[in-house]
Amino acid sequence: MVSNPIPLPKLTLLQEQEDESNSTSNSPKQTTSLLSFSTTSPHNPPSKPTILLISLLFLTTAAAAFAFAFLFFSSSSSKSHPRLHSNTQFSRPLTKLRHPVVLLISSDGFRFGYQYKTPAPNINRLIQDGTQAKLGLIPVFPTLTFPNHYSIVTGLYPAYHGIVNNFFRDFSTGESFSMASHEPKWWLGEPVWETVVKHGLKAATYFWPGSEVVKGAWTCPLSLCAHYNGSVPFEDRVDKVLRYFDEPSEDVPVFMTLYFEEPDHQGHKVGPDDPQITEAVARIDSLIGRLIDGLERKGVFEDVNIIMVGDHGMVGTCDSKLIFLDDLAPWIDIPKDWVQDYSPLLAIRPSHGYSAADVVKKMNDGLGSGKVNNGKYLKVYLKEELPSRLHYHASDRIPPIIGLVEEGYKVEQKVSRRKECGGAHGYDNAFFSMRTIFIGHGPRFAKGVEVPSFENIQIYNLITSILNISGAPNNGTLSFPKTVLLPHL
Ligand SMILES: [Zn+2]
């Protein structure tokens, strides 16, 4: 058994109502200077019985149609409808496929801006003829691979979908989660492939964290659910996805995933500013070209809604930017076995009998004393006292003490052998370097449009909206899709 049952957030109709009425919110305000988006507090109490939710959903859909009609005829400006730059007003009809299809592509560690590092004609074709998040997609905290990939497909913050780190320990059972753990008890929430199958539709996954977990309606059938194998050439992954379009139109999966480990691997080795990264980006671009060519040959390129994202960005790190926990010894000893993760997410669970609040105070006393090397670049919190915009406390899987380090710094136990400079991610998602890309291309995306940056927990609602299916409760905002997608014809 996993520790506590983690409550799922309720549908975000409260936020919806707030958006519509501009009323003041009871939920905590976001305070970061970098982030201007609005998110729903996970603490909103359930507000309406299910039937009312469904009614409101229907009314909201109708209201959205009216809103778009109004925008079309009035050309008024509105903060919540940033698509006014669009030249296209309605979605484009399908020409060959019989139903909407979403192909969700992840290029791991594709930092926002990489798309401009080198000529990337294929990615830029998607951008020019599609919709891009102008200043990038905002990952969830911690800006790590598994928490973010699972947020993208569930619409939930990690505290609610349960994957709070790439590795973590369940304190109540002593069991450990790793990236190879496929037991459903770890993976909470409803990923989009499960939502799709629940609606009697077909989904196919070519690698995605959580996709191999047999849970609910999702059985991970062998022909539609590839088991992760990092040695499969990227070209083979593209070709396999292309083959799904050889099926009779009604049998083509409505939702597909495609995953590439690059440029993350290179980014860790050499940091974000290196010729090897440029090569990795060019390689991803050529794979996107292979995909586009294949879809064009099959006559479906303009019919498929391609969503290309990354999970997080990347920042350069060097050994001079280190903070050693052993340097805190004059204030408090932090034994190794208290530390569940060092960097960039410092996660500490003190032994029984120690007060977490006391540990936090003593650590911060030391870090702020001016006597600890780079101490001012680490701040330690009780998890309940972390900035609310991080949404990182409502799970027993999150240890009681969390440290936030400044961009590019790393925490280690003690002075060790020197390492070469490289790259890392996992930092505060307010850092611009942690941002990644969002590009949407296809019938539901306006051409040549840029939308304001948004958090990746909004993508689940985007996908269900394109597929015309109802989604599970999540942290995204129900009104969000209409700010990015073209309305149905
Ligand atoms: Zn990653």
Tell me what you see in this structure.
Keywords: Membrane, Transmembrane, Transmembrane helix. Residues 1-45 are annotated as: Disordered. It holds the Pfam family Phosphodiest. One of its GO terms (molecular function) is hydrolase activity. Mean pLDDT is 86; it is low at 1-87. The longest helix is centred in the first third of the chain and has 25 residues, at 50-74. The protein has 489 residues and is an alpha/beta fold. The protein has 12 helices and 18 strands. The chain has 2 domains: 101-316 and 430-483, 3-Layer(aba) Sandwich (Alkaline Phosphatase, subunit A), CATH 3.40.720.10; 319-420, Gyrase A, domain 2 (2-Layer Sandwich), CATH 3.30.1360. The strands form 5 sheets. The chain has an 8-stranded mixed beta sheet, sandwiched between helices. A 4-stranded antiparallel beta sheet has the order 11-12-14-13. Strands 3-4 form a two-stranded antiparallel ribbon. The protein has helices at residues 13-21, 50-74, 121-128, 145-154, 158-161, 192-198, 234-244, 264-270, 275-297, 356-367, 459-467, 481-484; strands at residues 101-107, 131-133, 168-169, 176-177, 203-206, 225-226, 255-260, 304-309, 315-317, 322-324, 339-341, 345-348, 378-382, 401-405, 410-412, 422-424, 438-441, 449-451. The chain binds zinc ion (ZN).
Write out key terms for the chains shown.
Gyrase A, domain 2, binds zinc ion, single chain, disordered N terminus, alpha/beta, 2 domains, 4-stranded antiparallel beta sheet, 8-stranded mixed beta sheet, Alkaline Phosphatase, subunit A, 489 residues
